[in-house]
């Protein structure tokens, strides 16, 4: 591979270019749909190829890097870099986008080209967050990905879709603007200290920040990232957005969009503000444990399956926050691994809920029942992913949660114990959901057809990855080992 | 007047000749031809201004082609040309006939072009008032609608008061300094209070022009009543000209300490009231009026820092605001049939039934809300950056919070455009001139949003010598 070839730019903008082309195919929705899927598959293939063919990582952990001047007036540069953590999340993003497209294949019937174009645009926005190493560039993608997601919820959603779309947008937008202030403040402090004004992460990490100022800046970051994460007091947009978005939109929201916040905490916030991060650690512990327990608790009370999975997603994201707060190599590896696992498992659960409600138009778990005998393939996957979500050993979530708990237990046993309580609660609501859907007797007879080939393939690919990560997580852990060692060394 | 003076003032000459030509030859030509000629002349003047290198020495009494003029004239020219293209179809539908409309627009452009060239306060004032005078006529141009005439009268009365106040302020500054020449404005000892009073009056007058709270009350009525393309031009060029007026005066030894509090309050109130009042509007043009009040508040925030960064931010934001507001009003104009399409709910479903215009309107809304990757984000970023750097951290954070709130009312329009079923009142097809102008503005929004470096360089060179 020619080292000068802007492969990261290609990786980043391929979905967007594909999306624009898809809109131009608006006359024939069927072609547009196929073209969009091909673009997403090409992106996945490109990501996988980069992962396998990438040269060895340098001392900075980055094996692909691109840096161009962009807005010189402010020292803003177009800096992209890919290390192990980025690569893992890029692959997850590309994969989940393909899953989302397969899921919406039949579900979306109106304005098909625009829908698939927006999915691809969202993908570029999310990839941008995972690849940017300039804070301005990061912020740009961070905000820009809201726009396609807003349209996806508002146009193709259901229920109170307008309310949910606007709420989703405003929550994230308002939180993010304070982060922008913090970024500008960092930039100015760094410029005043060194004379070189730059938004580059590599330079800004050397800024000397007074302790109190650092606390304010960290709070601004935490507010912005906590909304998207979501950390528990900031999560109130989530059930609405997750429930009213189209199924694929929910998969993208839960599977990858939430990960951008966790990623930004690891990549930017902690390295930029290490002292403040230490000071805020108890706060994050509390948020994480409360999130785990509270999410599981509320999930147990839900009758609506989608809402149940939404709250279970909050609960699982708590483990990621816990791993980040502990900030030890083991816990952080667990957190990154859990980001992938959460994307796969929660993504799959939303896929299943989407498939069920597409068949019956009903999301009340009590109205189902006895699916085990009627639709064996669907029932199998339903059981499989619920067990994964509950942390069954041998499946993916177990490894991530285990690592997080082990890592946390060494530094904060109390928090680890609280999180453990959450696992027990998870088991409770999961078993109840499985009982209601698969084994109970339905309140009224309901005809549900079994999975089509496309649907089986979608779920099977997710299941294969789930098992693989469950029994052999070493490749992912190897990839993220160097960057995590670098991050936790400081 | 030497030959080189004539070359450097060529943009003014082109526009001046064009306005007379349109007025005299207009009756014998089709309106279509007049419009195209007018737009071409405006673009030619803008191109000329961009090509000629600026001089700071006054070749003529009261006029010089300054670096600032080199930046502002092309912006004004493009805005006027786009307005002419956008208003052609609108005027046909509203039966605004005759050559006086394009002639007045170009005359207004002439005054706009003179303003940044002024080197003494008298020229500056005359240019500002000539701009306002053209708008008195333009706002009332739609004779078929009573609101248009009402808006014209309202604007005239308020404008006359503002002009008197500004003139009085300038007179006091003259009394304090003993000179009209801008370059020589330095305060001799002992005249401080007269100067300060003069500045106070000028500030009140300009607050009217910029519709800063509490001098904003005319704005919603005038925007709602004026023909949509005129409202677009009014909300952009006349505001930008007012800001430039202040900028040119502020460059010369103002009593900064005394001006700080009034500017602070003007900015705070405009950002606050503009955004909060816009939340409650049901009419799109009124909403845009309050939004423009808020945007002028942001502009004042950058202006009050008194730093070079702040002035650059004003110039950049002015240009960006011009592009996005022209896009918004242009789309509204083009979507209006015989009557005005006013209520926000009237725009339901138009994102799909009129994809180009709906898309441009949505893009303009996202840009006004300051969401990347649009030009509006770059503009807001620069404004708040300069404010934080200039030490106005509290006001900047307040402004950012208000900007966050503003996303709500801009999104409401987008929600109507794309997420509501279309009503029965479908728009007429889009003419080629309108499509061209709208595509230009939206390209401007996207290109500046993604790659603002060239525009930033132009801004820097505009402040290079002045």
From TrEMBL, chain A:
- GO CC annotations on file: endomembrane system; membrane
Taxonomically, the superkingdom here is: Bacteria
Membrane topology note: Multi-pass membrane protein
The UniProt transmembrane annotation reads: 6-26, 38-65, 85-105, 112-130, 136-156, 168-189, 209-227, 248-270, 282-301, 308-327, 339-356, 377-399, 411-431
Quote the InterPro entries the UniProt record gives.
NADH_Q_OxRdtase_chainM/4 (IPR010227), NADH_UbQ_OxRdtase (IPR003918), ND/Mrp_TM (IPR001750)
Where is this chain primarily localised? Answer: membrane
Which residue numbers delimit the NADH:quinone oxidoreductase/Mrp antiporter transmembrane domain? 132-426
Q: Which GO terms describe its molecular function?
A: NADH dehydrogenase (ubiquinone) activity; NADH dehydrogenase activity; ubiquinone binding
Q: Which Pfam families match?
A: Proton_antipo_M
User: What keywords are annotated for this sequence in UniProt?
Assistant: Membrane, Transmembrane, Transmembrane helix
Q: Could you confirm whether the keyword S-adenosyl-L-methionine appears in this record?
A: no
Swiss-Prot/TrEMBL GO biological process terms: ATP synthesis coupled electron transport; electron transport coupled proton transport
Subcellular location, record wording:
Endomembrane system; Membrane
UniProt cross-references to NCBIfam families, sorted A to Z: NDH_I_M (TIGR01972)
**Recorded family membership:** Belongs to the complex I subunit 4 family.
What is the designated name of this protein?
Answer: NADH dehydrogenase subunit M
- Naturally occurring in which organism (per UniProt): Geomonas silvestris
UniProtKB/TrEMBL annotation, chain B:
Which terms in the GO cellular component ontology are assigned? endomembrane system; plasma membrane
Query: Which enzyme class, named as a word?
Result: translocase
Q: Which residues cross the membrane?
A: 6-26, 33-56, 68-89, 101-118, 155-177, 197-218, 230-253, 259-279, 313-337, 358-387, 393-415, 436-456
Enzyme Commission number, as recorded: 7.1.1.-
Q: Name one GO biological process term.
A: ATP synthesis coupled electron transport
- Provide any one GO MF term from the record: quinone binding
| Keyword Cell inner membrane appears in the UniProt entry | no
Listed InterPro entries: NADH-Q_OxRdtase_suN/2 (IPR010096), ND/Mrp_TM (IPR001750)
Q: Where in the cell is it found?
A: Cell membrane; Endomembrane system; Membrane
Q: What does the UniProt keyword field contain?
A: Cell membrane, Membrane, NAD, Quinone, Translocase, Transmembrane, Transmembrane helix, Transport, Ubiquinone
Membrane topology term: Multi-pass membrane protein
Q: What is its main location?
A: membrane
Q: Which residues form the NADH:quinone oxidoreductase/Mrp antiporter transmembrane domain?
A: 118-405
So what does this thing catalyse?
a quinone + NADH + 5 H(+)(in) = a quinol + NAD(+) + 4 H(+)(out)
What the record says about family reads: Belongs to the complex I subunit 2 family.
**Subunit note:** NDH-1 is composed of 14 different subunits. Subunits NuoA, H, J, K, L, M, N constitute the membrane sector of the complex.
Q: What is known about what this protein does?
A: NDH-1 shuttles electrons from NADH, via FMN and iron-sulfur (Fe-S) centers, to quinones in the respiratory chain. The immediate electron acceptor for the enzyme in this species is believed to be ubiquinone. Couples the redox reaction to proton translocation (for every two electrons transferred, four hydrogen ions are translocated across the cytoplasmic membrane), and thus conserves the redox energy in a proton gradient.
* UniProt-recorded name of the protein: NADH-quinone oxidoreductase subunit N
Organism, by scientific name, is Geomonas silvestris
């Amino acid at each position: 591979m020619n080292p000068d070839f802007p492969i990261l730019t290609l990786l980043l903008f391929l979905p967007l270019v594909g999306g624009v082309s898809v809109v131009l195919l608006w006359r024939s929705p069927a072609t547009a749909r196929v073209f969009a899927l091909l673009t997403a598959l090409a992106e996945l293939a490109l990501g996988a190829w980069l992962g396998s063919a990438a040269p060895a990582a340098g001392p900075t952990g980055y094996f692909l890097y691109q840096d161009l001047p962009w807005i010189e007036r402010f020292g803003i540069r177009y800096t992209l870099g890919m290390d192990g953590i980025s690569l893992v999340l890029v692959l997850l993003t590309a994969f989940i986008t393909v899953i989302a497209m397969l899921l919406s294949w039949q579900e979306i019937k109106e304005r098909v080209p625009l829908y698939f174009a927006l999915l691809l645009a969202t993908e570029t926005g999310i990839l941008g967050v995972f690849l940017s190493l300039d804070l301005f560039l990061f912020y740009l993608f961070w905000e820009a990905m809201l726009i396609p997601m807003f349209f996806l919820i508002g146009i193709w959603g259901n229920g109170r879709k307008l309310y949910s779309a606007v709420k989703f947008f405003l929550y994230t937008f308002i939180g993010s603007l304070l982060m922008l202030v913090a970024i500008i403040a960092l930039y100015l402090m760094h410029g005043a200290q060194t004379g070189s004004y730059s938004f580059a992460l590599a330079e800004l990490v050397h800024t000397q920040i007074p302790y109190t100022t650092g606390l304010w800046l960290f709070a601004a970051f935490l507010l912005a990232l906590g909304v998207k994460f979501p950390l528990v007091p900031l999560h109130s947009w989530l059930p609405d957005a997750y429930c009213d978005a189209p199924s694929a939109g929910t998969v993208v929201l839960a599977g990858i969009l939430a990960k951008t916040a966790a990623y930004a905490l690891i990549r930017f916030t902690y390295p930029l503000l290490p002292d403040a991060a230490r000071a805020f650690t108890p706060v994050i512990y509390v948020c994480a444990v409360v999130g785990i327990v509270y999410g599981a608790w509320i999930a147990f009370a839900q009758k609506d399956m989608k809402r149940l999975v939404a709250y279970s997603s909050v609960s699982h994201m708590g483990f990621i926050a816990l791993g980040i707060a502990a900030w030890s190599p083991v816990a952080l590896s667990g957190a990154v691994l859990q980001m992938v696992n959460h994307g796969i498992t929660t993504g799959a659960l939303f896929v299943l809920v989407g498939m069920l409600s597409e068949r019956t138009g009903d999301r009340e778990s009590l109205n189902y029942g006895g699916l085990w005998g009627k639709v064996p393939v669907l029932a199998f996957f339903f059981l499989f992913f619920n067990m994964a979500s509950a942390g069954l050993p041998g499946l993916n979530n177990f490894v991530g949660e285990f690592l997080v708990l082990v890592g946390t237990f060494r530094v904060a046993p109390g928090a680890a114990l609280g999180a453990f309580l959450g696992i027990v609660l998870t088991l409770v609501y999961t078993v109840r959901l499985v009982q209601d859907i698969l084994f109970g007797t339905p309140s009224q007879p309901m005809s549900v057809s079994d999975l089509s080939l496309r649907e089986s393939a979608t779920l099977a690919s997710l299941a294969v990855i789930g098992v693989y990560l469950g029994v052999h997580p070493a490749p992912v852990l190897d990839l993220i080992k160097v960057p995590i060692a670098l991050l936790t060394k400081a | 007047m030497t030959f080189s003076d004539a070359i450097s003032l060529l943009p003014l000459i082109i526009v001046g000749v064009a306005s007379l030509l349109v007025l005299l030859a207009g009756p014998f030509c089709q309106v279509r031809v007049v419009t195209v000629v007018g737009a071409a002349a405006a673009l030619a003047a803008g191109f000329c201004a961009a090509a000629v290198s600026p001089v700071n020495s006054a070749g003529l009494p009261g006029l010089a082609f300054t670096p600032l003029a080199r930046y502002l004239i092309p912006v004004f020219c493009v805005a006027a040309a786009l307005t002419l293209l956008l208003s052609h179809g609108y005027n046909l539908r509203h039966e605004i006939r005759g050559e006086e409309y394009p002639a007045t627009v170009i005359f207004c452009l002439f005054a706009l072009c003179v303003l940044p060239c002024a080197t003494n306060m008298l020229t500056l004032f005359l240019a500002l008032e000539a701009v306002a005078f053209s708008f008195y006529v333009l706002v009332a141009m739609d004779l078929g609608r009573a609101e248009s005439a009402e808006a014209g009268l309202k604007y005239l009365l308020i404008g006359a008061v503002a002009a008197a106040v500004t003139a009085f302020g300038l007179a006091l500054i003259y009394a304090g300094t003993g000179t009209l020449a801008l370059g020589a404005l330095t305060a001799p000892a002992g005249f401080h209070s007269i100067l300060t009073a003069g500045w106070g009056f000028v500030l009140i007058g300009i607050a009217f022009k910029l519709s800063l709270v509490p001098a904003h009350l005319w704005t919603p009525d005038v925007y709602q009543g004026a023909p949509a393309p005129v409202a677009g031009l009014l909300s952009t060029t006349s505001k930008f000209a007012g800001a430039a007026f202040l900028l040119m005066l502020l460059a010369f030894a103002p009593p900064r300490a005394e001006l700080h509090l009034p500017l602070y309050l003007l900015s705070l109130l405009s950002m606050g009231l503009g955004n909060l009042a816009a939340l409650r509007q049901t009419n799109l043009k009124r909403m845009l009026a309050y939004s423009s009040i808020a945007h002028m508040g942001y502009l004042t925030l950058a202006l009050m820092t008194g730093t070079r960064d702040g002035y650059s931010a004003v110039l950049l934001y002015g240009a960006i605001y011009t592009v996005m507001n022209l896009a918004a009003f242009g789309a509204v104009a083009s979507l209006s049939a015989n009557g005005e399409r006013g209520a926000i709910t009237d725009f339901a479903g138009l994102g799909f039934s009129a994809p180009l215009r709906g898309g441009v309107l949505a893009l303009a809304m996202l840009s006004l809300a300051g969401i990347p990757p649009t030009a509006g984000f770059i503009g807001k970023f620069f404004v708040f950056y300069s404010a934080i750097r200039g030490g106005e951290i509290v006001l900047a954070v307040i402004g950012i919070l208000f900007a966050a709130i503003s996303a709500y009312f801009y999104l409401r329009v987008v929600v109507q455009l794309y997420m509501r079923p279309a009503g029965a009142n479908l728009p007429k097809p889009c003419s080629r001139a309108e499509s061209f102008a709208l595509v230009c503005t939206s390209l401007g929004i996207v290109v500046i949003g993604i790659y603002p470096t060239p525009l930033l360089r132009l801004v820097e060179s505009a402040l290079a010598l002045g």
